[in-house]
Specification:
The complex is a heterodimer of chains A (237) and B (499). Chain A has nine helices and ten strands. With 237 residues, chain A is α/β, with parallel strands linked by helices. Classes of the chains: A alpha/beta (237), B alpha/beta (499). Chain A: It holds the Pfam family Pribosyltran.
């Protein structure tokens, strides 16, 4: 039977293997070409932020850690705020296009394409004892988009989701430099005053670019006594 | 956004004064009330001119909801449902999509409930069950331009009779197909008709499936209508949000229009994606006023249309001769055996290689059309051994523009291409060959267009058109007959130069 690819809408024949027949594994909702264009982060990576070392100039690396993470660790305000980050895909041109269609154009259904990989990779690095907290959008941005992409990702995990954070409205992050981003006040707050004592938390977001957003959110959680805060994102910029 | 129905009026939720009434997505209301135009309302010219002839989302309107809503209450603006329910499922009112697999649903932060949306036209902004389409109730009025046309060229006699038919169709809000051979000069054929339309205060749109054609046509029209506002619309165009008496647009951008044009000219009506995409045909239909004229232009109408013309069911005018008056080069067929097998062995059939060799030695540039991208890459690799300047282009090639430009400058002796270059590219003095002309992708239309690349300039009006094949197809025969028929008709009507 001919299907139509969830992303490119081209007709295709899904590949059926013995695995599909024997284990009820779902047939791919993407054509082979789109599926192959998602590249996993694999091989050596920064043990802190999950940045792949492949194709990275060696001057950006010191042993097991990248120089960005060293910079974070050298800053007393940000040292150890984020325990670690892991991401599923490389943020390549294809991924940028897909994310833009999904998040900015608002084609919510695309989230389905990430489901299997996102869930499998999550459980490679974390487990169900972690508390899942999606990075929130501001009320204004949420209205504009219609849905929160981080929450849509968190829902793929089939674990309880904790909306413990809220976010102020600010101008778009992407228009600022790293320094500007660091200096801005924290846009996150606790949704309600609670104690997170002994809780290990995983923040869920779509892209890890500089890690500033995630660290701002993590800081708020640590101030509420969280034991640790890590993050898991769909792509690593 | 949700609405509240109060005293038979829709009120956007944020503007509702009475609390407690149930707010609902617009698609949930059975009947959408609208009001007669209040003549003494001091309307916003900016808003109405922005909305003129359009059908837009609230997100596309840079005006506060209070202002938009005031215009609704005074009868100047209408709210329409973006998505309607049908017996089978849903229908997108902007793009006409009704295919179940092109709708999806999400829990919407705007209406606080599961909200179906259209995936088909999502790149133009999301239309969902809680999305109102905003439409102006004021009919589009044109301005009269008496002598907008500043063009001093002359039309060939074939062009002249077609141009007269176009004028007639525009005056009588009629339908017309202009079937003009490749190189007939169909753009000029439009000048008198558009001139007449502007005199009558009609709004004109020239729509084409392809952005590069918009970019090519816009400066041309700006030049011959120098004092007329002309805008060009395509994805990312700066003219977005403007209106003008003459609009040159991709068929895609017509999705934002509504009852806007008195004259709709659709260029390359048989070209991809317009020909296979009902959404674009719906968009073009919706953008037309009632009544209005529609002019279709093409060198290669599909078989159904050819049949309709033959039976007199479709009004048509043909221009069977090129503007320079020389006949169209007729393709010759040449059997080349199992060329796919040869390609697998890193080689090409002997006669194909000989043809290419002759062009390289003779210094005459040529296009070689091949059926698919994968084959193209292999063939280019083979030919690069003959001459390293040989290049290949296909739809997804990022260097496509650069390579075509280099070919135009004469820097490349041979360009191997997929059907992507079958239209629009005109380079003087070239030959053309098709390898694998029997492939399904080479339809009659594609082959006629490909043959139409040759002999375009008056200086070099002839050239070789060779179809290398592994078995003749009906499409190949039809293409040849099509070309010969045009030449015959041109001769009969005395449109060809006599030696």
């Amino acid at each position: 039977m001919t299907h139509s690819c969830l992303i490119c809408h081209a007709p295709y024949h899904p590949i059926v293997t013995w695995q599909h027949v024997l284990t009820l594994k779902n047939l791919d909702i993407l054509c082979e070409k789109c599926r192959r264009s998602f590249l996993f982060i694999s091989g050596e990576m920064c043990e802190s932020c999950g940045r792949p070392f492949q194709h990275l100039d060696s001057s950006y690396r010191q042993g097991p850690v990248c120089t960005d993470c060293i910079r974070w660790q050298e800053d007393d305000d940000w040292k150890d705020v984020l325990t670690k980050n892991r991401s599923v895909y490389l943020y390549n041109d294809f991924m940028k296009e897909v994310v833009s269609l999904w998040k900015f154009r608002g084609d919510y259904a695309i989230v389905k394409a990430f489901e299997e990989d996102f869930s499998r990779e999550f459980f490679r690095h974390f487990d169900d004892t972690f508390l899942i907290a999606p990075i929130p959008l501001s009320t204004e941005r949420l209205y504009e988009r219609g849905f929160n992409q981080a929450k849509a990702l968190a829902e793929l995990l089939n674990l309880p989701i904790h909306d413990i954070l809220t976010r102020h409205h600010h101008e778009k992050q992407s228009k600022k430099s790293r320094r500007e981003r660091l200096q801005t006040e924290n846009v996150f707050q606790l949704a309600e005053p609670i104690s997170l004592a002994n809780q290990r938390i995983v923040l869920i977001d779509d892209i890890y670019t500089t890690g500033t957003t995630l660290r701002h959110a993590a800081k708020v959680l640590l101030e509420a006594d969280a034991a640790s805060v890590s993050s898991f994102t769909l792509a690593r910029g | 956004m949700r609405f509240i129905l109060e005293n038979n009026r829709l009120i956007p939720e944020p503007l509702a004064k009475v609390q407690g009434k149930e707010a609902m997505p617009i698609s949930c209301f059975e009947h959408l009330p609208s009001f007669p135009v209040h003549p003494h309302f001091s309307f916003s010219t900016e808003l109405l001119s922005f909305l003129e002839g359009k059908q837009l989302l609230l997100d596309e309107l840079p005006f506060p909801i209070e202002l938009i809503h005031a215009h609704y209450e005074q009868g100047y603006v209408m709210y329409k449902k973006g998505i309607t329910k049908t017996t089978k499922g849903y229908r997108c009112e902007r793009c006409g999509n009704e295919e179940a697999h092109l709708f999806a649903s999400f829990f919407c932060s705007r209406c606080q409930q599961p909200c179906p949306y259209c995936r088909k036209c999502i790149t133009m902004g999301r239309v969902s069950a809680c999305t109102p389409l905003i439409v102006s109730c004021i009919p589009v009025r044109g301005q009269m331009y008496d002598d907008a046309l500043h063009w001093h060229g002359t039309l060939s006699s074939g062009q002249q009779s077609a141009a007269e038919a176009v004028v007639q169709a525009i005056e009588h809000n009629d339908q017309l197909l202009v079937w003009a051979v490749c190189g007939a000069g169909k753009t000029e054929v439009l000048f008198p008709g558009i001139h007449r339309a502007l005199q009558l205060g009609k709004r004109v749109c020239i729509a084409t499936p392809r952005t590069d054609v918009v970019l090519e046509l816009a400066p041309r029209f700006k030049q011959v209508f120098p004092h007329l506002p002309v805008i060009a619309l395509y994805g990312g165009s700066e003219d977005r949000g403007k209106t003008a008496p003459l609009v040159i647009s991709t068929t895609h951008q017509l999705l934002r229009f509504y009852k806007a044009f008195d004259v709709m000219i659709i260029d390359e009506v048989d070209a991809f994606p317009y020909s296979v995409e009902p959404m674009l045909q719906y968009a073009a239909e919706k953008a037309r006023k009632e009544p209005s004229s529609v002019i279709y232009l093409t060198a290669t109408p599909n078989r159904q249309w050819q049949q309709d013309v033959k039976e007199g069911k479709r009004k048509a005018v043909t221009i069977p001769a090129r503007y320079h008056g020389f006949p169209l080069p007729v393709p010759t067929f040449e059997w080349c055996g199992n060329w796919r097998k040869a390609v697998k062995k890193q080689s090409l059939p002997r006669n194909v290689l000989a043809w290419i060799h002759d062009r390289l030695v003779g210094g005459k540039q040529a296009f070689l059309f091949v059926p698919h991208i994968e084959l193209l890459e292999k063939i280019v690799a083979i030919l690069k051994k003959l001459n390293s300047n040989i290049e290949g282009v296909h739809a997804e090639d990022p260097a496509r523009k650069e390579k075509v430009a280099a070919f135009r400058k004469g820097e490349l002796p041979l360009l191997v291409t997929t059907t992507i270059l079958e239209r629009g590219v005109t380079v003087p003095n070239i030959d053309v060959a098709v390898l694998g002309a029997e492939d399904r992708i080479f339809t009659e239309g594609a082959l006629v267009q490909i043959a139409g690349r040759v002999g375009r300039s008056a200086q070099y009006p002839s050239g070789d058109v060779r179809f290398f094949h592994y078995g003749k197809t009906k499409e190949m025969m039809a293409a040849k007959q099509h070309i010969e028929k045009m030449n015959k008709e041109a001769a009969k009507r005395g449109l060809l130069k006599t030696k």
